[in-house]
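I'll show one example:
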Amino acid sequence: MVRKVLLASPRGYCAGVERAVETVELALEHYGAPIYVRKQIVHNEHVVRDLEERGAVFVDSEEDAPRGATIVFSAHGVAPAVHESSAARDHNTIDATCPLVTKVHVQARRYAASGYTVVLVGHAGHEEVVGTMGEAPESIILVESVADVAALDLPPDTKLAYITQTTLSVDETGEIISALRARFPQIFAPKKEDICYATSNRQWAVKEMLDHIELLLVIGSRNSSNSNRLVEVARAGGVASYLIDDETDIDETWLDGVETVGVTSGASAPEKLVARVCDWFRVRGVREIEPYRMVDEDVTFKLPVELRRELALAESQS
């Protein structure tokens, strides 16, 4: 019987997600509905539904937004070809790409321009990876595993550099990078690792909790890379773990024989979902619901420049 719920810290929204969601909310306030959003602004079903109710229209491609429409690019980033396609349709574009993803895009361009073949460590098909590869498609090779590194067939004199998706498993990525360095000792590395602070911090917080829990619930949507990595971190540490969109996904059979449950949430999951999961446990008689340590993240990002400019102009005219 569950007696205690421990809440991981940090958890939930990162600065990039907060900025992206606020961008859509402010655009709706300023321009009025509809505001078009290319792909999911962040990978969370609840966030997307909330914004849809306020007048956001999510489209798979910028080509699905009418000519002249206001369109927001998601936190995961887009390839240069998307910007060109939107410009050709006279879109008013607001780029909500997370600044940490933008940093990886800039690295990709710089390495490619300097004649490097760029190895991108990431997951095929993820929007962030698609956008990054679009920066220099002829120069970037995607690797997803140590086996992919072993299979690389490159001329011995190839100038190599690597970059990574920002939402990967810290441990798994470390293994892939070690394999790259072992095979290609001259490979050029980013000055600072690309995995974002929030992804690293949330994985660290889960590892810290593992000795104190028998089950970890990770709140996040199925397509959230960083949420899936949190499940993997717990399982790798020998603790059962499940990804849930909200409290309705909890299977009570998971709790058989469990006294202490850990709860965390991915970087795109709003805190209200954590509160709902806590309430679910309270209804079932759990009285001890407390944070496992308290860690503050003080990272903030400015709103996209296009939106800041527009809001400042509106303020000066009012």
